[in-house]
Amino acid sequence: MNVDALSVVARARAYLGRQIFPQGMCLNFVWRMVGSINSVPSKQGTLTTALSAWNSSDYKHHGDRNPPVGALCYFGSSPTRTDRNKHAGDVTIWDGSALICTDASGATVGRMSIAARERQTQRPYLGWTEDLGGHRLQFARVITAGAVAAAIKAVPTSNGDNMIQLMIVGGPANGTVLDLAPGYMHHSGNTAEADITRNVISNPDERHNVGWEDFKRVALGHGIDRQFTDAGEAGFVKKIDGAPWGGLWSEERAIHQRLTGIENSLKALAPAPSTPAK
């Protein structure tokens, strides 16, 4: 069974900033993000620790620090720790620019670099895999910036069936209205401006009022690039006010958007399939 790696990342992003597992439950978290699917018969019993999952993988990329989005990144036995989990290893999810970890801070799901994770866990980086429990991850195509631009031209700039509308309540961004779809965010102005164009805004009666923290969670869950939220609420307002009626584009839109136009435009750019590790 193939698993969409981008869906794995989207699920994991929805948990950023939350405490859902105690520390030491990295493999359980990753397994759930992959879809909680049972291992194939030949791999049953191999998901006892992160290190055992790495050892049982058929598609390893040893030491590669440039994994694709959605890759499962592993760390080995600790040469310095003395606790009972020193040989358990660690597994995380690569979201395109950082690792999503179950315990980036305490027991809170967060993001960090590969080097930072090595320092935090006192474990060496092993590399990344394309599979878990015998199930392959299906990665997005590797494409050039020009190919992305050409593909996006074939895609409508809005889609009422897939978009939701949020209004931020309270704080510096109070009244800001945004439309979100997977990998795409459009600033529709403030509430007064949005009322003027109510007839052309997708799902005008489905507006959800959210605070800033909830907005960040929803945006990240839709694959919106963190550049729009990492600057904080005041920084976000300054950025969108530079072009209040424009579309705010995430670089990940071409990856997350599953419209036919993108799929057809990029079909010829698929990389060669990997071969099993020997």
| Overall shape | elongated
User: Helices and strands, in N-to-C order?
Assistant: EHHHEEEEEHEEEHEEEHEHHEHH
CATH superfamily caption of the largest domain: endopeptidase domain like (from Nostoc punctiforme)
Please outline the major beta sheet.
6 strands, antiparallel
Query: What's the CATH architecture of the largest domain?
Result: Alpha-Beta Complex
Unreliable stretches (pLDDT < 50, length at least 5) are 142-161, 196-205, 249-260
The domain tally reads 2
Indicate the percent of residues in helices: 25-40%
What spatial order of strands do you see in the largest sheet? 2-7-3-4-5-6
User: Count of helical segments?
Assistant: 10
CATH-assigned fold name of the largest domain: endopeptidase fold (from Nostoc punctiforme)
The beta-strand count equals 14
CATH class of the largest domain: Alpha Beta
Question: How far apart lie the N and C ends?
Answer: 21 Å
Mean pLDDT: 76
The value of Rg in angstroms is: 20 Å
Fraction in beta strands: 15-25%
Secondary-structure blueprint:
Layout: E1 2-4, H1 5-13, H2 26-34, H3 50-56, E2 60-62, E3 72-75, E4 90-94, E5 99-105, E6 108-112, H4 114-121, E7 125-129, E8 131-132, E9 135-138, H5 145-152, E10 164-168, E11 176-181, E12 184-190, H6 191-196, E13 207-210, H7 212-221, H8 232-241, E14 247-249, H9 253-256, H10 260-266
Parallel strand pairs: 1-9, 10-13
Antiparallel strand pairs: 2-7, 3-4, 3-7, 4-5, 5-6, 8-9, 10-11, 11-12, 12-14
